[in-house]
Amino acid sequence: MSNKISTRETIVNKALEMYNAYGVEYVGVRELAKELNTKGGNITYYFPTKNDLLQELAERLTASNSEILQRSKAPGLYGFMEMNKALYFNQYQYRAFFLSLPLWLQQNIAFAKKYREGLITRRKLFTQELETLVNEGYLLSLSAKDMEPVLGALSATGRLWICEATIDGLIDQEEKAVHTYLRRMAGLLQLIATEEGKADLQKFLKTFK
Prior knowledge:
Elements: H1 4-22, H2 29-36, H3 40-44, H4 50-70, H5 76-92, H6 95-99, H7 101-107, H8 109-135, H9 144-167, H10 174-190, H11 195-205
Helix pairs in contact: 4-5, 5-10, 5-11, 7-8, 9-10, 10-11
């Protein structure tokens, strides 16, 4: 751990690795320092509290998700599902964060506010994506009232699939877990897809091994 840049990066990467392996609640500065073969003070110099370290991970997750959302993608439901596939694989790298999220939202008011603001932004983005898919003929045209539960189900699936994968015993099988819950998302969209949209969904699902 020779300089500030590499030290900070080493701490973050090792913390994420240990959180994913053992759970956020069971990894503290002492455990992290032992794994890194360093003193606790070398960690708290960069991250005075565990919340500071978790905040760093949250910001990295948000930034990487934003980068995925801003990429150009294929048209139609195929492109929409490919985008979500990239998001799911990215979320998997931060799976411990999602598993500890309810507790952290209760304990960190500032983070909770920022997180909920982010949810509103992502919901607006998904609404726009679905409206585009309707206009392009991939989804049926529904009233705002009828579209609301679909949007809610898609949003919940995107937020909670890692918790479900843990309960279902799939969390240690990255590809299988991601594919399982993408299939569920595709199943939801199938209910409101046009024939062209259904063909797109089938094309996407055929890419799974």
